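Section 3.1: Structural characterization of target chains.
Under the original work plan, the team committed to producing a structural model for every single-chain target entering the pipeline before any wet-lab resources were allocated. The record below documents one such target. The sequence was received from the expression subgroup and is listed exactly as submitted; it comprises 240 residues.
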Amino acid sequence: MQNWRVDAAHSDTAEALICRVAGVCNGAATWDGAGFSKFDAHFGHSVAQRAQSGRAWTVKQAEAALKLLRKYQGQLGGKAFMDAWFVNPVFAAQPWAPDAPVSADAVAKPVALRKLLSRDALAVFRFGYDAELVAAIKALRGEHRGRKFWAAWDAANREWTVPVNETSIAGIMALAERFQFEVEPRFTDYVARVQAKTAPDAMMLALNGQQHVGVMGDSIVINVGDVAILAEFESELAGA
């Protein structure tokens, strides 16, 4: 894991590559050399759907996904491309370990003191000071549609804010899950709406006439009116 890095704006993140294989997979109903084999289909689609819903993988899921990427390298640009990619694997969101030790101070703090709220088109993190959590929030930065975004400290309200967009939402939700934030329903509703617009059966993603979305950083697996989805979310946040 030492050579893993996070770059949500990268076009070839591990999540994007997994979704690329899942997008042409028919569950091995037929053997056409595309998509996952019958043995790998269940896990491959489960991690693809998790990524598409804006949830970061656990470390174990990430490790298993990397093995799949190596196995299906022929569908992803070939051995030379994947050999170069594996020198420094890149993820859209930081993989996390459910049983990873978190500071004793952090564990002792009631979840109710940690809230993920919304203001206009911003995600607002409110919590009692914790150095580990602050460091994780500072890592929420990247680029979306050519514009950089990052976490900012609001001294007046004593809270951290992060712009919400298709790229940042994965990291926002992953951090909220890892550090057990109480999440305002708008965020989970937004992710659910994006997921609902994705084909219920991931095996049909490549066959649905571009009616569903699968966005990983700047890589669009299946294109839909994702700008409209984000506009809907921003509209709701503005009315909070």
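The first helix runs from residue 14 to 22.
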